[in-house]
Amino acid sequence: MKKIGKSDVIGQQGMSIIEGIVLSMGFMFYPTGGVEAGIDGFVELRDAETGEVGNLLLQVQGKATERERLQGETEQAFEFPCVDADIEYWTKGTAPVLLIVVALKSRKAYWKSLKEWFADPERRKSRKVVFDKAKDELTREAKAALISVATAVRPGATGPTVKKSEQILVNLLEIRFAPRLFWAPTSHGTDKSFGGALGEIVKPSRGEWIVRSKSVLSFHPLDEFPWKKLCDWEAMEEFDTTEWANSDDEDRQRDFVALLNRAIGEFVRPELYRDRDSGVFFFRKPNARDSLNYAYRSLQNTTTRRVVGPYGKKKSDPKKFAYWRHSAFLYRFVRLAGKWYVEITPTYHFTHNGQDADGYAGERLKKIKEIENNAAVMGQFVMWRDFLTTHGAEDLLTKTYPFLSFSAVDPLELDVGVPDDLWKSQEIDPSSPLFEYALAGETVENVT
Amino acid sequence: MTHLTEPDLEFAHAFRHTDIRFGIMDYGPLDLGMESAPKRIKLGVIGSAETVEGTARWIEKCTKGFAAKQSRQPNLFPPFPGVDFETTFRCEFVTSDEIQRVLPTREIARLVAVAGQREVTKQIVETITNEIAALAEQTVKPDVVLIALPVEIIERTYNARDASGGEEDDEVEAGPALDFRGMLKASCMRLRLPIQLLWPTTYDPTARIPRKLKETSERRTQDPATIAWNLLTATYYKAGGLPWRLARDARQLRTSFVGLSFYRSVDGEQVHTSTAQMFDERGEGLILRGGRMVESEEDRRPHLTAIDAYELLKGSLKVFRDQHGHWPARVVLHKTSKFDRNELDGFHTAIDERDIDYADFVWIQKSMTRLYRLGVYPPLRGTLLRFDKDQALLYTRGSVDFFRTYPGMYVPRPLQLRCQVQGQPLQHVAEETLALTKMNWNNTQFDNGMPITIAAAKHVGDVLKYVPEGQEIAARYSFYM
Questions:
Q1: Which ipTM value was assigned to this complex?
Q2: Which pLDDT does position B143 carry in this prediction?
Q3: Which of A89, A169, A414 best probes binding to B when mutated, by most B CB atoms within 10 angstroms?
Q4: Minimal CB count within 10 Å: which of A34, A294, A375, A446?
């Protein structure tokens, strides 16, 4: 035999009494139904004359009882004890919560606005709601009081965080480096003097070496040409690169990073140049053309991005371009949780003729950084990630770069997110470029 | 990767709210009902005839309040409901002729005609300090003095910091430019009257400040309600009030938060340390000046010697004890550079001496390692990426769920947290750091980038560099912020 428990019936009786009183005020009552955390229904305020509703809501937590005597009952009053979790829930919400106790024997209901009641710290400490049987009775006459409770609501309520899982990219690429390092004494005391001597033997010379206190450290075996010419190759020693990479000694780590910095400079050739002042790598302007597009695999599809292009007009000669903007990146090798990564920060390099640094670069960079949003920079990062993970792969003409390679890091998952569209719709100026997702592809055309 | 929920703050009668402005509106300031809470704050005003009048009128307007900025972001731009015994601070803000001092037009003209940035700054600081001194000697003293700067003085004393790009001053001067704000605060510190600088844009949105000075776009876009919130909150604090504090679990250890920062003396020769301490029980910040730095061989950056580190922390702990009558159970040190061996030794000695069992030494820096969402808005404030048990990335600036926007320009940079000494789990250290970003009494929008430990220590340094050695320094943060 199926059953419906007695307590359910009691609860339902209480609700019908509450509903009856609320309707008598001209307001609406909607039972919550379904899954709820204690709120049994909503009162919607309504102008009884015109029927107008203004989305002013009160939440109702109902409690019906068949007891003859209520807790702590006297001629004038009775109590209702609460637990902390409930108090927290009631006082934090967006809408005011009414606690309505229905004494079924007398068919009387009593109400309290919980947020107001517990605003007093003493009451909160006692965790009791004390009802005044005369003042707190819920009758048609309580209508005005209910209105004042509902309209006292102000903005400032904290809503639940948006539960929306999303993927997040981190601007790191994992690196792999050559397993062996070579060390040998040299007569040269500085990078400069060693580099000068090297340049006289071979042109162009390779850069994967550093000089520290009269010795060379390099990814190249130093007993081969041209290195053997510049150092005491017979005293050469070979090391596991990890002896530097995993060392806790700060000097060793610095030397290792210096070597990686030299290696990445060789790695990105010949497409990218390094700016001496800022240290960024940037796409150079092709000789014969004004702009350069770079095709790559973005998050969804293959796209091209204009990575070098002319902008503005010269004041002195409006037919000429004022400056060139080159896509660039700042990089830094970092060791995190025992692994080496390169951190890529997309930026720009500015030249006044496609070659030489532009005098107003600082200002132009500041301006574009003001406009660029998360999506824009993310888009550029994805391009650089593609460049670094695919560049230097073996083909007919070149071998894979042997000393350094990069691989993407898996996207991270976060279980709270941002509802971009909803937020954007509430912005003061939603048409501002700041809220354009397309900024990410400001210069991107899809290649189909 | 996890997301830390926005920490709660505590307001009057132990009520909690995520947001500063709504917390004060709904419950009143933390000290409401306490004996020490200001009830009537007398605001002195110093400025030109015009700025004094404008400021006085603005104070008057604050009583009635300002409407919210027209927007669909009511949590970001709430109204300022006014000040009286029933709303916001439950306290009055008043001014009157007796506590106002007007600089004669001729005097202002004379001052701004002084040649050279250093000289003009010195003379203006001196003149204003004299005026504050005059107010300090009156029988009816103001609680806080508003310095209503006339545009002419702003133009001469605030450096445009090459905002105009390449347009350099052609005057050649001895030494670096003087920081007017720091110098003025240092100069009037001994008068024991906290001051608050005010630009004409505060009370007059149409006031024009030469464009190159307006580096922060905020000065341009702040609405009257936001301005009132920020200025009156800072003033309330400066007048001795405590607007809010961190909401903490009573079971948590009594913790002393100490922020350390280095500053260079005016002659550019010496680097000193300053500390600012935050006691969460009182929401109070206290200030110490530490020893001179040495350049460490480890990383060629300023560091303390072991002795100075020991003395500094010992002094900090003593300040805590003087306030609370007992030693803290836990010490949290925040610093923007790595703790070197000597510093670790010195700090440990001070902690061991007091039998303090829990210590966290956290190295906090802005990071270039960033996270990108696949969307327009940057990652949420509170996003935490742990690399290791002692190293993490924490977004303190970013999209804010409560505001339903990213209240900033530029793609934000997270903080890198590195616990060199760890007494608590990284998650706890990160939560605490996030909470401490909300303790800036100068800003009622809670999403500050740096925890107050570090922000305050830096502000303290900006002022202390102008206080001669040997001179007594004010202990309360009000004199530095």
A1: 0.89
A2: 97
A3: A414
A4: A34
